[in-house]
Amino acid sequence: MDRSGGDAPELDISAGQKMLSAVSGSLLTSLLVTPLDVVRVRLQSQPNTSSLPRPNSSSIPSFSNLPPNLGVTACCREVFWVNNTSPVCLAAGPTLTTSVDSITPSISTAAADCAVDEIRRKTYTSTLDGLRKIARNEGLPSLWRGLSPTLVMAIPANVIYFTGYDVLRSHKRSPVNQYINDGYAPLVAGSVARVSAAAVTSPIEMFRTRMQAAPAGTSGVGVFKETLMGLRKLVQAQGYTSLWRGLTLTMWRDVPFSGIYWWGYEAGRNRLRDLRCHHPTIIGHQDHTRSASPSRTDENHTATFIDSFLAGATSGAVAAVVTTPFDVGKTRQQVLTDHHQKRPPEKGSSSVLRPEERSMPRFLYHIWQEEGAAGLFRGWAARCLKVAPACAIMISSYEIGKKMARTMNERKASER
Predict the structure, then answer these.
(1) If you ran DSSP here, which 8-state letter would residue 212 be given?
(2) Fewer beta carbons within 10 angstroms: which end of the chain, N or C?
(3) Using CA atoms, how far apart are residues 75 and 77, in angstroms rounded to an integer?
(4) Are 62 and 187 spatial neighbours (Cβ–Cβ below 8 Å)?
(5) Separation CA 269–CA 2 (nearest Å)
(6) Residue-wise pLDDT tens for the chain (416 aa)?
């Protein structure tokens, strides 16, 4: 793909073969990295929990008329009374509270500890903590929540993305080849290909993000139906364009990510290829007697896999860290639900938008004001742990698939 490296045009590989390579890479990547994506969404969408709630003596809704044999003695979890949205309910004799913040001294210490424990159970402090708590409290299948929409989204997105990038980089009539300097061609081609893919799959990504952000206590089928109903209500209230909510933030995240990724990937592969030319035993082994700087078409399968895997993982990790603030903003905007309460009106304003409904720069500035840099980069570790292997697996699978297709085409041509 890199013209500076002397690669031959990839027109000997059909579009169908490139699509098949992208599909196989998408399936493998989605299966392996979906758990990390679930944790990333949970980390980014959970409220700011700098400290656990403390018991106080505010007013308590009383349920003293409940039947004595209800069986509630200290703490009940996932119990929701009418109009109650608290994460837990506490009980002490005949008195039952519906808010962790409204615990009186009359309630036993055990009940208060139970409430704090429940908050901890639903609060994720790191990637490993999220993986452990989701697997323990919700079951292992919950780590693959949203896999179906992930596959539905990833396959067409990657087909458009990778084949589009190849066309822009290798086709003789591509405007990227004609008008863009070769050093910046990966950046431009990757950005344009990502814009096309993101615009097509944005509604599916919103569906997947909402499914993954769903709290514990609901079955997979229940989450699917609830998410579908939520999107239906959203469309009824705000029209079909609401399905592309967060597309601007997605572009702000994906366009620079793709530019940085492909730029770093091409540079990384060239560097690894040059390194092997001078030290052929360091990374892979192949015959370099034909040329001091062989093209990628001359590489064997091992060299292609190692180079693409290392270059993809490194450039993907760097791009992921740089674009994490936009990923945080996109996630919070897409999981926004209509029942969130608006803030009190400010002076001199007739209506107030929720922070998630503001423009991208103002929304990110709001996060920075409220939570600082830690808020903007919340979930960066989970994002890197997901993106780096995903990029490595996807690009190496894609490159190996294309190499196998080229080998098969050459074999067929020689048999004619």
Answers:
(1) H
(2) C
(3) 7
(4) no
(5) 9
(6) 444 444 544 447 887 888 888 888 888 888 888 888 888 888 877 776 554 444 444 444 444 444 544 444 444 444 444 344 444 454 444 444 444 444 444 445 655 566 566 666 678 888 888 888 888 888 888 888 878 777 877 888 888 999 899 989 888 889 998 889 888 999 999 999 999 998 888 888 778 777 777 765 555 567 778 888 888 888 888 888 888 876 776 788 889 999 999 999 999 999 998 888 777 665 555 554 444 445 666 778 888 999 999 999 999 999 999 999 988 887 787 676 544 444 444 555 445 777 777 777 888 898 999 888 888 898 888 889 889 999 999 999 999 999 998 888 888 888 87
How are beta strands 75-77 and 88-92 bridged, if at all? antiparallel
Output the six-digit token pair for 238: 């705000």
What does the block give as tokens for 276? 């092997």
Find where tokens 């702000």 sit.
252
Taking the C-alpha atoms of residue 310 and residue 265, their distance in angstroms, rounded to an integer, is: 9
Long-range pairs of 288-294 with CB within 8 A, sequence gap ≥ 24: 293/5, 293/6, 294/6
For residues 45 and 51, give the distance between their C-alpha atoms in angstroms, rounded to a whole number. Answer: 17
By residue count, the chain amounts to: 416
Phi-psi region of 54 (alpha: psi -120 to 50; beta: other; left: phi over 0): beta
Question: Which phi and psi (to 5°) does residue 75 adopt?
Answer: -150, 130
DSSP letters, 326-337, are HHHHHHHHHT--
Give one DSSP letter per residue of 214-238, joined into a string: PPSS--HHHHHHHHHHHHHHHHHHH
| Lookup result for tokens 């793709």 | 258
Q: Provide the token pair at 298.
A: 């001359």
- Report the alpha-carbon distance of residue 311 to residue 274 in Å, rounded: 13
Does the pTM exceed 0.85?
A: no
* Tokens read off for 190: 């990757």
**Burial (CB count <10 Å: 0-12, 13-18, 19+), residue 12:** middle
Per the listing, tokens 């700011």 go with 48
Count Cα atoms within 13 angstroms, Cβ side, for 64. 3
